[in-house]
What we know:
- This protein is mainly alpha-helical.
- The protein contains eleven helices and three strands.
- Strand 1, helix 2 and strand 2 form a beta-alpha-beta unit.
- The two termini are 26 Å apart.
- The C terminus is likely disordered.
Amino acid sequence: MLNEGAPTLFLDTAFALMLETARRGIQQPLHPLRVELTRPVSHQEIYEAHYGCRVRFNAHHNKIVFRTGDLELPFATYNPELLATLNPQLECEIASRKTQQTASSRAKRVLKRLLGGQCIAIHGVAKELGMSSRTLQRQIAEEGRSFRLLLSDARRELARLYLLHPSLGLSQVASLLGYEDANSFLRAFRVWEGATPTEWRVMQKAGLQETPGALQQPLD
């Protein structure tokens, strides 16, 4: 179930990404039992053709429901020995991150949640964190960061996530990141990754994790 206040495009992306991940994991066709959306009826035939199930609009919650039997299907790439080896390290990393709740990291999490077709100002983030804009700005500065840099980091991380979904066009990604136009997003992405979004997608598809010459920035 996802937040009813989430942007429509973000919600569709999240559901589609969840379904595609499951299909690739079990390496066989998979269709949800049903999909429920709080928005008014729109393009129902297209949605039902994509999901392969009934899509209910004007629902009380946004949700994608799977059959119990489907949820129990094993991932083809599941490796219990490797998981057992990595688990202690992952748990240690999670515990470490929980103790590192800096103002910058909390502000960036809020930015990621608020971004979606709108320009985010520091006072909106400060309000979400229950503090004044001046206090947030001071705490971020004490950590050697700036609100502008946090916004850039949040956009970069979300851009990499959105671009992994092939159905999202560059204009849609730009809108989700709060840019006024696709050209502004393209310029920013070239600074982040040293490549265009299209080139980056090709490299990710080929299994390359980093773009040669990319400008690296710290990601909280």
